[in-house]
Structure to design on (179 residues):
């Protein structure tokens, strides 16, 4: 278990370094900033998912981050991953990105937050779970791209999902060719 945790951290940091080294990656960072996470094989809670503490941000057209990956560093991206793993245990990584009209050409699953039941919407920290549950219910699988249309006070965005952070970062960087 200790070795698996160390390997998850190494793999995540390697993928993040690849992302930040790309000259165009700053274009993918939304106002709320970006995180990328990677879960242990049998992840049960947010402390089994590694992410970047404080997220990835932009300064002078360069993606930066302050601290190396850590377990329990992001509740938001961890909930996306943990809920995905309930339906497909191979989907252990995810990343949130800025949304551009060009991304609709990827034929992503489009999540409309207004479809979330009001009683559930009132519960804090449940929308990401609902988004993944709805995608699986509608498609019968976990999609590789999910557009979150946003809502009042919630920035629209694109989620990229995959098996590893290397796969997720590769998909993300391929999106820069559309910009």
């Amino acid at each position: 278990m200790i070795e698996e945790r160390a390997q998850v951290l190494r793999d995540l940091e390697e993928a993040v370094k690849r992302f930040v080294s790309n000259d165009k990656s700053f274009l993918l960072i939304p106002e709320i900033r970006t995180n990328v996470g990677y879960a242990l094989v049998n992840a049960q809670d947010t402390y089994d998912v590694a992410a970047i503490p404080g997220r990835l941000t932009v300064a002078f057209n360069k993606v930066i981050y302050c601290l190396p990956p850590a377990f329990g560093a992001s509740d938001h991206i961890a909930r996306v991953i943990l809920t995905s793993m309930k339906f497909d245990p191979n989907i252990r990584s995810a990343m949130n990105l800025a949304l551009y009209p060009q991304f609709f050409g990827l034929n992503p699953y489009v999540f409309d937050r207004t479809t979330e039941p009001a009683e559930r919407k009132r519960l804090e920290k449940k929308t990401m779970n609902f988004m993944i549950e709805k995608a699986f219910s509608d498609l019968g699988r976990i999609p590789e791209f999910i557009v979150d249309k946003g809502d009042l006070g919630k920035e629209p965005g694109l989620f990229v999902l995959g098996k590893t952070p290397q796969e997720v970062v590769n998909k993300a960087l391929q999106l820069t060719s559309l910009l």
